[in-house]
Amino acid sequence: MPGESLFNALEPLLERVNKPIQYVGGELNSTVKDWHVGGHGPGGEELTTRWALMYPDAYEVGVPNQGVMILYEVLNERADALAERTYAVWPDMEAQLREAGLPQFTVDGHRSVRDFDLFGLSFSTELGYTNMLTALDLAGIPLHSGDRDVDDPIVIAGGHAAFNPEPIASFIDAAIVGDGEQAVLTVTDIVGEWKAQRRPGGRREVLLRLARTGGVYVPAFYDVSYLADGRIQRVAPAADAPGVPWRVSKHTVMDLDAWPYPKQPLVPLAESVHERMSVEIFRGCTRGCRFCQAGMITRPVRERSITGIGEMVERGLAATGFEEVGLLSLSSADHSEIADLAKGLADRYEGTQTGLSLPSTRVDAFNIDLANELTRNGRRSGLTFAPEGGSERIRKVINKMVSEEDLIKTVAAAYGAGWRQVKLYFMCGLPTETDEDVLQIAELAKKVIETGRQVSGRRDIRCTVSIGGFVPKPHTPFQWASQLGVEETDARLLKLREAIRADKRYGSSIGFRYHDGQPGIVEGLLSRGDRRVGKVIEAVWRDGGRFDGWSEHFSYERWMRCADEAFADVPVDLAWYTTRERGESEVLPWDHLDSGLDKDWLWEDWQDALDETEVDDCRWTPCFDCGVCPQMGTEIEIGPTGKTLLPLTVLGSGRQDLLEHQH
Q1: Whether residue 237 has a cis bond before it, omega within 30° of 0
Q2: 6-246 maps to which CATH number?
Q3: Which of 89, 405, 454, 613 has the fewest CB atoms within 10 Å, i.e. the most exposed one?
Q4: Does domain 276-381+614-642 have CATH number 3.40.50.2300?
Q5: Could you please report the per-residue DSSP string of 92-104?
Q6: Which of 342, 377, 340 is closest to 358 using CA atoms?
Q7: 359-409 confidence digits (pLDDT tens)
Q8: Contact between residue 35 and residue 327 where contact means Cβ atoms under 8 Å apart
Q9: pTM for this structure?
Q10: pLDDT in tens, 191-230
Q11: Residue limits of the Radical SAM core domain (predicted)?
Q12: What is the SS3 string spanning 399-425?
């Protein structure tokens, strides 16, 4: 029977796999609804719309994901809908499921994913694509959208990687670009109405209804033609898909206070990557870092009010029992009321062992008063800053307006106030970068250690330098840039490591962590690829590719071999997608997906990067005409509100005050 629990059949498999608890479900605040929660119509028609939501990675990575957690709750609040979660199963469990003839299942009701109406996948990184194919295959859903029938789930991609879903166009039925909260409700309405009407026109009809909204991209309704040299000639709506728009718009939720999710955060049963309760304090960023896709595609800035944040923290702590609250955003210290917010929360939870954290802190937005408020009730952990580039010159190229003086002042204040450990994050392979730009990272790290020793009078000062490889992303000024090759990346990192170790005065105090260039090149292929890259993904998966975001499972040799084979008959290759610089007139694979950003503005910003010209943050300066606000009908929404947090505590008697305050 559809919707039947498979747990009795799954249970014997659990003792044969590692970490069986990740497949059990039943977490605090999880939901299992009746399969027919919406009931049936007078003619027996189905009135429940069912979503299986997947973060295509292991449970420990996926369960704390805010995006999936929010959609899970938003959908389950609907009386006519249900949502359950599924995660990528490890290879040992995949083998057991195949041997037992059991499908990909949800952790909530242990139901087969194929029984659901919609299968939604949230991609924060492109390296999860092979895990999607495993899930589809295990679920018994045909890999290719063109092979599915009316009884197969509609496969929808979302998340940041969905801003260029072309490499997975043949595997998904649709993609939602931008914020998901309102979008999933719109999709639920359309699919629910189609089901209530007894599914007229079959699968094609419901996909047409979705595409005609202008906010759901259905790749099958768009034709792509190519020039002889391999470039795209154009992407156009198919002749047999009337009413499908030329461009698909992103979704933007404006009033975050109207969407205070998650209200009941999930508490994982097994250890996860984030053991904390998190609240998104604002969405979007206008700092204008040219490498940062997240900042570009989530514009404009929309702040949650200080009182809205306070209510979410109060409710979330009471619902979970967590002892740490993460204040999330792309640059949390940029919230216009961050000082009042940090002090208000520290006051409210004085004596409760409730710690606060800002997972992302800019050098020029940090101050010791803020840091002290964040650590007042919790433990004092290390501080992380992201200068991104080692030299002043390269920071101008990427528009990271942080000077060496800013960084030294900030770390001096931190070490002087009792911190012993600072982590600095940089990138390697940025446009126009030279060996000298990267070697400046070593000099900067030495100055940080020397400064720390001077202001603290101690020798046990530590600094960890963490390096990530730069990958050009769609919808950024660097979408035209060439990517640094694997050999060049590794050679540059080797020189940096030697420069750090060569100076015996500082070498033992500086930690050095880096990723080699291989995964970055594969990510580059997937992030800027077009539909022809789908053959590579499928070949890698069929060859055993799984969990490509995990170094112990990633095989560069496999990706290179499969790419060579897949591109044998077309005038493109791996280098064409990765290390080639694009021209201004080239049609990019994602041009028909509208992030609101004007392509001419992005090109001008790319030229400004090459000229080492910086651009201010439009939150505090006049508009720079990036296009988002007029194009999307949105505007920047920031405080201050002038409101303060009530002095409640989770141990005290503030619950009634909170309720009265809300009304």
Answers
A1: no
A2: 3.40.50.280
A3: 405
A4: no
A5: HHHHHHHHHT---
A6: 342
A7: 767 787 777 788 888 778 766 667 888 999 999 999 999 999 889 999 999
A8: no
A9: 0.95
A10: 999 999 999 999 999 999 999 999 999 999 999 999 999 9
A11: 271-509
A12: CCCCCHHHHHHHHHHHHHCCCCEEEEE
